[in-house]
Amino acid sequence: MSAKELQINLEFSAGAELLFGNIKRRKLSLDGTVKWTVASLLKWMHANILTERPELFLQGDTVRPGILVLINDTDWELLGELEYELQPNDNVLFISTLHGG
Amino acid sequence: MDNLSLQKQDIEELRSEIAKLRAALYTKEQQLQDLEQLHAQQSGNDPDSAVVQQEHEEKAEVHTHLTNDDIARFSRQLILPGFGVQGQLKLKNSAVLIVGMGGLGCPAAQYLAAAGCGRLGLVDYDIVERNNFHRQTLHSEKKEGMSKVDSARIALLELNSSCQIKCHTRLLNSLNAFSVLRAYDVILDCSDNVPTRYLLNDACVMLGKPLVSGSALKMDGQLTVYNYGADGPCYRCIYPVPPPPEAVTNCGDGGVLGAITGTIGALQALEAIKVIVGLGEVLAGRLLIYDGFSNLFRNIKIRSKRPNCHICSAEPLIRDLIDYELFCGMHATDKDNPLQLLEPEQRLNVFEYQELQSAPHLLLDVRQPAEFEICQLPSAVNMPLAEILDDSYVKRFSSQLESKEFPIVVLCRRGNDSQIAVQHMRNRYPDHSIRDVIGGLHAWSNKVDNGFPIY
Ligand SMILES: [Zn+2]
């Protein structure tokens, strides 16, 4: 691992993975020379790994209603949402909410 | 057939007919009650009198001791540390409302009745259908066509005849929610749609009742308890804005395994018992996510109460129940919500397609391969929606796409995904003859070929 890389983990649950090539866990190596926030991560995801119907994941610059975002198992709203600055080995989990029964 | 077995058949038929009539009567009685209440409210009569009277009727006796039968029946849970006689008595004196007698509601009701919950209320407007049996385990084959709450009631009384079961054969709405919910201590959200989830949340917040919320789809499940404890969030604290309708998948479209709903439903019963008895750590402020594919359970800490929540904060903006179907832009059922994306001239009805069938054309069936395997029309080519949207079709059908006149017809199960596909294809080929079939294979089966299987 180079010192210039920022390594983070992405996880998808309850169907969110279907929009990302059906892969539930990914390790990312991002350019470590720049600052990464959740906002810039979402842009990166849109450009690189969001394979299907982006409107089912994003709404404007943020995730659509009904998707929970957890950073290291903590609700992102408690951490500054889009402004949160990603740290090495952070785990970012996207959960789509289920409504069926 | 001999005389005796003919008689037996007649008896069975009469029984089933009577059950259906009873269910129909019950529904009418509930409609009448709703209307009378609405009438009393709007004509300025004492608005709560009907409710007060109803509550009075339902005032249940308070049990202070266990019978010998209770002790024998519940011995295995009575000896549980932390449960005991007091726990059993609390259950016996409790009333739990289960909203939705489907894949979640059946197992939840089953475990609550078996555990000795004194009073259960069951809410569902729907009738038992054949495609329910694989997961809605209280409904058995002979009860097809019966109302779900009646069917469940019969099965639950077989388990525990001393459980008092009240049937609410109706769709919950802003008018009847308070009068239905008021008599219960704990509410279980076993529903299958977004508007009902917001309605139950708001009503539970206003009435101060804990809401045990479960949901399931495909191989996944989720569970949490809302509106419990000083800091416990409500549904709106977590989801202030409803999801866009196109992002919501129901079990009828996405599929679900019965063992998944069974797992979550049983866990809802567990949380209800814990809330009633005061046992263990209730799943409030946490979300349990269950991934049945890998059999992984995971607990996530979710936010506590949102200080500016529209319903549960100190200064709520919402002070009365609203129109939840309007708020969510969705119907409060998991029945067909037909999309309307295309212009009429971009669509064929099933008879128009039937005429086209003998002429050269390309029929693209955009369902999942697992669905295509169940049934398909002759000459249909399976091209799942995902492969339309990622433009794989362009290369595969390059020769058919050369001519603008060559008819391309897109088909799916009910005529929603086919519209999404046609819209996407027309963005690239605006002048081509690309149309979908209105109502999809369901319409084909209903109107053209009754022998074509429906799923
Ligand atoms: Zn709230």
TrEMBL record, chain A:
It is found in: Cytoplasm. Pathway: tRNA modification; 5-methoxycarbonylmethyl-2-thiouridine-tRNA biosynthesis. One of its GO terms (biological process) is tRNA thio-modification. InterPro entries: Beta-grasp_dom_sf, Mopterin_synth/thiamin_S_b, Urm1. Its main location: cytoplasm. It holds the Pfam family Urm1. GO terms for cellular component: cytosol. There is a cross-link at residue 101 (Glycyl lysine isopeptide (Gly-Lys) (interchain with K-? in acceptor proteins)). The modification 1-thioglycine is found at residue 101. C-terminal thiocarboxylation occurs in 2 steps, it is first acyl-adenylated (-COAMP) via the hesA/moeB/thiF part of the MOCS3/UBA4 homolog, then thiocarboxylated (-COSH) via the rhodanese domain of the MOCS3/UBA4 homolog. HAMAP family: Urm1. Belongs to the URM1 family. Acts as a sulfur carrier required for 2-thiolation of mcm(5)S(2)U at tRNA wobble positions of cytosolic tRNA(Lys), tRNA(Glu) and tRNA(Gln). Serves as sulfur donor in tRNA 2-thiolation reaction by being thiocarboxylated (-COSH) at its C-terminus by the MOCS3/UBA4 homolog. The sulfur is then transferred to tRNA to form 2-thiolation of mcm(5)S(2)U. Also acts as a ubiquitin-like protein (UBL) that is covalently conjugated via an isopeptide bond to lysine residues of target proteins. Interacts with cer. This is Ubiquitin-related modifier 1 homolog.
Automatic annotation (TrEMBL), chain B:
Residues 357-453 form the Rhodanese domain. Pathway: tRNA modification; 5-methoxycarbonylmethyl-2-thiouridine-tRNA biosynthesis. Gene3D superfamilies: NAD(P)-binding Rossmann-like Domain (3.40.50.720), Rhodanese-like domain (3.40.250.10). The active site is at residues 251, 412. It is an enzyme of class 2 (transferase). Keywords: ATP-binding, Coiled coil, Cytoplasm, Metal-binding, Molybdenum cofactor biosynthesis, Multifunctional enzyme, Nucleotide-binding, Nucleotidyltransferase, Transferase, tRNA processing, Zinc. Its main location: cytoplasm. It comes from the Eukaryota. Zn(2+) binds at residues 234, 237, 309, 312. It holds the Pfam family ThiF. ATP binds at residues 103, 124, 131-135, 148, 192-193. Plays a central role in 2-thiolation of mcm(5)S(2)U at tRNA wobble positions of cytosolic tRNA(Lys), tRNA(Glu) and tRNA(Gln). Acts by mediating the C-terminal thiocarboxylation of the sulfur carrier URM1. Its N-terminus first activates URM1 as acyl-adenylate (-COAMP), then the persulfide sulfur on the catalytic cysteine is transferred to URM1 to form thiocarboxylation (-COSH) of its C-terminus. The reaction probably involves hydrogen sulfide that is generated from the persulfide intermediate and that acts as nucleophile towards URM1. Subsequently, a transient disulfide bond is formed. This is Adenylyltransferase and sulfurtransferase MOCS3 homolog. The gene is LOC115628535.
